[in-house]
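Example for tutorial group B:
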């Protein structure tokens, strides 16, 4: 394989549209590692996604096709209606490892059916910081041991369907208060805390045989005071040497500020491969010109001696082998129905109520329209609303009200709206269940999903809604 082809093989970009552009097909023929799908690629439904992946395979049978399908809040295949499976935090609250494994498998079976080979999940971050703006309900919880057990179960379930798992975001993004899409967070803990908390779910993922691990754009001063994990040889060395991981190290998207704001994507790509990454997520809505710039930067780095050709070849070899796993086990008769029954029971256990909901006969539903994170995107959330208000609005309909919020505890505007709630109101918290100063009865849903919506509706109905 030529040096130019090696440089393409380690790239995982995304191009907008529901069909593969001709120029991208040529890149795939030249050796491009694969493509990552976002909402703009999946908008026409499963048949179109299957046609998209078939187009990729027609010119590059071994190309990786990846997606962020975490269940719950983060979905790419179910943007219009929400995920049909519970998300991580709800699964952690239901605390049924058989259910978690079944959810991973259900996701894997769906992805395999449309030709997707790599799922950028599960999230292995321990969300120990309630003010975390980007992980939250994407985590299985704040307990390292519990998160580890669910990460392993989810990974085993997913990979039983023949789709590769990718535990993220190494070495841990849970104890941060900034979003690495927008800034460069710092995980300021000593090595003992890192080992006892952050690394535990990743060790479980490696033990479960995860095919890939994704890096985080987080600085860990105890290991490297300057570079984020994605670009840091000491941090990625920890994954190889301490955890014994031999699979594919995938970078988080290099268009994120935490990786490239001060240096540009091509330079971040060189540093990341040199540090030990194998497959580079580039981001969304990339261009052919970007790919050529990154390819040229990697080739130049090898020729100038900044990047060892052996390291680039090693990375490309790992990417090539990512789709070499044996075929998954197909769905069994009645499996989907059984999983749905487990989901309904798990959703009911995951939803909790604080306080006593007032009588809700005739209650109107209000959604406080706080935006989702970049990871979640613009997918709809919440039960159908009679009224939608902006965070901070105090002009609310007369009660009783069902006030729907996300992560209210860390948003002053949302808290101001709740402070103006009329008597007889109840809050439905679809995000992380953080502490609030008001005393409104609260239904904690722990993330948005179709089964979660049914469970919340059942609680409201019992109060007369």
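The residue assignment follows.
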């Amino acid at each position: 394989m030529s040096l130019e082809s090696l440089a393409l093989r380690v790239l995982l970009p995304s191009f907008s549209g529901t069909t593969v552009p001709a120029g991208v097909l040529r890149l795939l023929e030249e050796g491009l590692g694969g493509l990552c799908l976002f909402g703009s690629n999946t908008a026409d439904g499963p048949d179109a996604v299957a046609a998209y992946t078939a187009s990729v395979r027609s010119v590059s049978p071994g190309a990786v096709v990846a997606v962020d399908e975490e269940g719950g809040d983060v979905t790419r295949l179910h943007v219009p209606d929400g995920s049909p499976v519970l998300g991580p935090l709800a699964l952690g609250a239901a605390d049924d490892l058989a259910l978690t494994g079944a959810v991973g498998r259900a996701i894997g079976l769906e992805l395999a059916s449309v030709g997707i080979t790599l799922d950028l999940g599960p999230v292995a971050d321990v969300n120990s910081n309630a003010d975390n703006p980007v992980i939250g309900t994407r985590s299985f919880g704040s307990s390292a041991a519990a998160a580890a057990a669910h990460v392993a179960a989810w990974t085993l379930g997913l990979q039983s369907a023949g789709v590769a798992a990718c535990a993220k975001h190494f070495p841990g993004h849970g104890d941060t208060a900034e979003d690495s899409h927008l800034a460069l967070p710092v995980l300021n803990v000593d090595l003992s805390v890192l080992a006892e908390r952050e690394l535990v779910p990743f060790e479980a993922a490696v033990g479960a045989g995860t095919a890939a691990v994704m890096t985080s754009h987080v600085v860990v001063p105890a290991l490297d005071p300057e570079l984020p994990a994605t670009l840091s040889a000491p941090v990625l060395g920890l994954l190889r040497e301490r955890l014994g991981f031999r699979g594919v190290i995938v970078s988080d998207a290099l268009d994120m500020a935490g990786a490239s704001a001060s240096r540009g994507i091509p330079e971040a790509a060189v540093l990341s491969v040199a540090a030990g990454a194998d497959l580079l997520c580039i981001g969304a809505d990339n261009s052919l010109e970007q790919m050529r710039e990154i390819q040229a930067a990697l080739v130049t780095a090898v020729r100038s001696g900044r990047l060892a050709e052996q390291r680039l070849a090693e990375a490309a070899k790992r990417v090539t082998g990512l789709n070499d796993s044996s075929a998954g086990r197909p769905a069994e008769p009645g499996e989907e129905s059984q999983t749905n029954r487990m989901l309904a029971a798990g959703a009911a256990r995951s939803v909790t109520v604080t306080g006593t909901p007032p009588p809700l006969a005739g209650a109107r539903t209000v959604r406080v329209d706080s935006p989702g994170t970049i990871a979640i995107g613009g997918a709809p959330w919440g039960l159908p609303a009679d009224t939608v208000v902006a965070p901070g609005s105090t002009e609310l309909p007369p009660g009783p009200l069902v006030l729907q919020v996300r992560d209210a505890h860390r948003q002053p505007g949302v808290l101001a709206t709740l402070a103006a709630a009329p008597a007889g109101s109840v809050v439905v918290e679809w995000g992380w269940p953080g502490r609030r100063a008001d005393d409104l009865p609260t239904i904690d849903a722990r993330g948005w999903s179709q089964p979660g919506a049914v469970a919340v509706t059942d609680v409201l109905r019992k109060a007369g809604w």
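Residues 97-113 form the longest helix (17 residues). Compare this with the pattern of hydrophobic and polar residues in the output above.
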